[in-house]
Every structure is written in structure tokens, then in C-alpha cells.
Design goal:
- The protein is α+β, with helices and mostly antiparallel strands.
- It has three domains: 107 residues, no CATH class; 208 residues, no CATH class; 64 residues, no CATH class.
- It is 39% helix and 17% strand.
- It contains 17 helices and 13 strands.
- Strands 1, 4, 5, 6, 7 and 8 form a six-stranded mixed sheet that branches.
- Strand 10 and strand 11 form a beta hairpin.
- Helix 6 packs across helix 7, helix 6 packs across helix 8 and helix 12 packs across helix 14.
């Protein structure tokens, strides 16, 4: 006999929301092990103490925002509807079955006005990292860094072309000092001071989101993107730094600054780092050596001119400071240019009778030129680290740490594209996505520890 279930749904029942949420639910773990009491103290200066309408509890407001990032709910309207019908969400926010859910407009208004031009989202991320440190989940000795492209909310066909000033190299003063010291050591005169000329380049600027950058990379989609530069700790894969730039900024540009920021903010004593090939630049190699950090950086393949010897065929003699060509001729030092490259040149009189000339150079004067950067020793040290046994083991962990962190963000937390526009807003999304990933990791780890105790 068939019976409709409608009548049962219309009966009154005396229940407790506490009993309706499963004991092993993720939000129970989050609520048990993550301390959210710091939120009120962080936002207190942003609220008026003696005027205005009573505000929604900031902890409730931010926990509602966290729910959106925990479960990849990208719309604030949809988030409001989900909280209305989901008992676990209500329990997490401290709402009863009949309590009114905060309106979606409250979230957007606070983000656009009250929290605008503040560091609240960075402060929340940092506080979660500090809690992970207090639970001994951050080793602070080995870090893995990389960047991933995240699609901007912008049509790649709607843009204007503009002349913009190229990024000023933050290591330029240090490089000039190194060049002058190298020239002096080789008995060369100092270079004449040159008036700095602002170098401009033409770029595509989005009409929808001007802060994004037009990205063109081999093997990557073309269009307007942002780059999420992320660092994770090697102990439990806790995210320790998040920094967002336009998609046309090179991976290596913000790296050393962000590394120093972590050491200063969290008192890291970094001993080793593992990086992708995009970070294999002379300034980064030099910076890691100066900081006494064991760096492992992937090899970057350079394609030599077809039919000519690659640079690896020319052996460098550090003791006598010259190169030796495949035919045994010495290429002595000539000069050091402003870009920091030493120039080593062969003798054309010897080269013109060399049987390997056609495989060595195609210059009209039959002179072979080989360059070596003043910081090339630091780069070679990174190459030695990469080929060592410990270096290979360290680099293999990249795919288990930083790559996995990006994959989790994109698959489970709606991080394949930014729903907001503008660098400030997309940074908010990147920071809060990383924060909830850290919360989940902390909650699961501490829950396992509690069960094993």
C-alpha cells in the first residue's frame, strides 16, 4: 500500500540543531580547532562604538564568507540561499532554525565600503598561519614557491593598447655596484654615468578589468589573467604566503621580496627552497646565496642557434678567467657591460683558419663572443644543488606540495577564475581561498591527533 509522505512533513517535532549535524562533519572540526575570536579585535577599529544601528556580529559575517570559500559557492546570493536551507551551515554560524540569515547585500556592502583599503583579509590569513605555527604544523625551514594563472573576469577581445613604464628592477643598484667592482678588479675604467631613460612598452589593457594583464605563454591559454604567487611550507603543506600580480608579470619579480616578508612576519629561518625554472635568474640565485639558503631551481632549456655549438661546449677557467673553445683556443676577458655581463672574445686571426669555424660563429669578423654574468657563480651553485641527491629529493616534493595546493584550490574552492575585478578584490579572493585551505588542513590534522591520543 502506497502512502504519501506529505503528512509527516507537516507535523511538528521538537529537535535540537546540535543533534542534526553529524559528529564527523568538517564544520564541526573547523569550529573545534580554529579560533575565530581574533576577528572581532581585528575589525573593532572599523566600527563605531557609540553610534549607528547594531551591526551583525563580525565573526558571523566572516564565517559566512568562509563558508562560500569552503564549498566553492561563488555567488553571495546563492550563499544566502544555501545557509537558509543547510542545517550544518546554520549550526556553524550559531543560527537557530528560525533565525534570519544575514542578507547577501550585507556581505557585499562591507567588502566594498567598510573593509575597503584595509589589511583585514591579509591579517586574517596571517592569523591562521600563526595558529598553524602554534600547533607545530609549520617547519619554517623548507619552502616551495610557484605561481598559477587565474582567469580574470574580462573579455580578451575588449582592450586598448597603451604605452606603460616597464618594471623598475629592484636589484639595479646592487647590480651597478657589482659591475663597477668587477671592472675595477679587471683594471677597467668605471663606466660613465648614464642618464636613466624611462623605457616604455606597448601592452594590451583590458577595458573591463584594467588591473589584469594580457598573458601570452607557451602551453598556456591566452587572454587576461592574474598570477597567484604562492608559497607553502614543506612540513604539512601549510600555505605561508599569497601574492597576486597581473598576468604579464614574470614569476621571479616579487619572489625575494615575498621571501623576506615571510621571514620578517613569521620569524622563519629558511634553510632550503625549491623553485620552478621560471625563477632561474641571476638576481634570485644571488639573493638566495646571500641569504645562505640552499636553493634548488629547475633547469631552463635554451635552444642554441641551429648548427652552432651551444655555450656548454665552451669551458670556463675560473683561475685564469677565460673560456676555452672546442678547438682549444682561449677566449680572454675583454670588458663588462652595464647589464653585468663579462665579454670573452676569441682572436679572429686564429679563428679564420679553424676547421670548426662554421660550427662556432657566423660573425663577419670571424670572432666568437661568449658572455658570463657577474653573478653567474651563484647560478652555477644552484645548478649543482639541483643535480645533488638531496636537491633531487627536494625538487620531487614540489608536485606533492605547491602543485597539490593549487589543484585543491581550483578543484574544490572555485579558484579557476576570479569572480571579482580589480587587484584589491582578487587579492581578497586569493587570500581567503588560501586561508580556508589552511583551516581545513589544520582541522583534519588536529582531529587525527586527538583520535590517536
Amino acid at each position: 500500500m502506497l502512502r504519501p509522505n506529505r503528512e509527516k512533513q507537516q507535523t511538528y517535532e521538537l529537535v535540537s540543531i546540535e543533534d542534526l549535524v553529524p559528529e564527523n562533519h568538517m564544520l564541526r572540526k573547523i569550529d573545534r580547532y580554529i579560533d575565530f575570536s581574533f576577528i572581532n579585535e581585528k575589525v573593532r577599529p572599523l566600527y563605531c562604538e557609540n553610534n549607528g544601528r547594531p551591526a551583525i556580529d563580525p565573526t558571523v559575517l566572516f564565517k559566512m564568507i568562509f563558508l562560500g570559500y569552503f564549498y566553492g559557492i561563488r555567488s553571495e546570493r546563492q550563499l544566502e540561499r544555501e545557509v537558509q536551507t543547510n542545517l550544518a551551515y546554520r549550526w556553524f554560524l550559531g543560527l537557530g532554525l528560525t533565525d534570519k540569515v544575514p542578507d547577501h547585500s550585507t556581505i557585499s556592502w562591507n567588502r566594498r565600503t567598510r573593509f575597503k583599503d584595509t589589511t583585514i583579509f591579509q591579517d586574517i590569513f596571517d592569523e591562521i598561519v600563526l595558529q598553524a605555527i602554534s600547533h607545530k604544523m609549520v617547519g619554517r625551514r623548507v619552502l616551495f614557491s610557484d605561481s598559477t594563472h587565474v582567469k580574470a573576469s574580462a573579455n580578451k577581445h575588449k582592450y586598448t593598447k597603451q604605452e606603460v613604464l616597464q618594471n623598475t628592477k629592484d636589484y639595479l643598484d646592487e647590480l651597478n655596484t657589482a659591475v663597477e667592482a668587477d671592472r675595477k678588479a679587471h683594471g677597467k675604467k668605471p663606466l660613465k654615468p648614464r642618464e636613466e631613460v624611462e623605457e616604455n612598452k606597448e601592452v594590451k589593457v583590458s577595458m573591463t578589468d584594467p588591473d589584469s594583464g594580457y598573458m601570452v605563454r607557451d602551453g598556456k591559454p591566452e587572454g587576461f589573467f592574474y598570477l597567484d604567487h604562492r608559497t607553502v611550507d614543506g612540513k604539512y603543506n601549510v600555505i605561508t604566503d599569497v601574492h597576486v600580480t597581473a598576468g604579464n608579470v614574470h614569476d621571479s619579480v616579487p619572489y625575494l621580496t615575498r621571501l623576506d616578508r615571510q621571514c620578517e612576519r613569521f620569524k622563519f629561518q629558511v634553510e632550503a627552497v625549491a623553485l620552478d625554472a621560471g625563477y632561474l635568474t641571476n638576481p634570485i640565485c644571488r639573493g638566495l646565496e646571500e641569504r645562505q639558503i640552499y636553493g634548488v631551481i629547475a633547469h631552463r632549456r635554451f635552444q642554441p642557434v641551429k648548427g652552432l655549438f651551444p655555450k656548454a661546449k665552451f669551458r670556463y677557467n675560473a683561475e685564469h678567467d677565460h673560456y676555452t673553445c672546442p678547438n682549444g683556443q682561449e677566449l680572454p676577458y675583454r670588458t663588462t657591460d652595464r647589464q653585468g655581463y663579462r665579454q670573452y672574445a676569441s682572436d679572429p686571426k686564429v679563428c679564420q683558419d679553424c676547421p670548426l669555424l662554421n660550427s662556432c660563429t657566423r660573425s663577419a669578423n670571424r670572432r666568437k663572443m661568449v658572455t658570463r654574468h657577474v653573478w653567474e657563480d651563484s647560478k652555477e651553485k644552484m645548478r649543482e644543488n639541483r643535480l645533488s641527491r638531496s636537491g633531487k629529493q627536494l625538487y620531487r616534493k614540489r608536485k606533492e606540495t605547491i602543485e597539490r595546493s593549487f589543484a585543491d584550490a581550483k578543484e574544490r574552492h572555485g579558484f579557476r577564475y576570479f569572480r571579482l575585478r580589480g587587484l584589491t578584490n582578487v587579492t581578497e579572493q586569493a587570500l581567503l581561498t588560501a586561508a580556508v585551505q589552511n583551516m581545513k588542513k589544520m582541522a583534519n590534522h588536529l582531529d587525527r591527533q586527538a583520535k590517536q591520543a
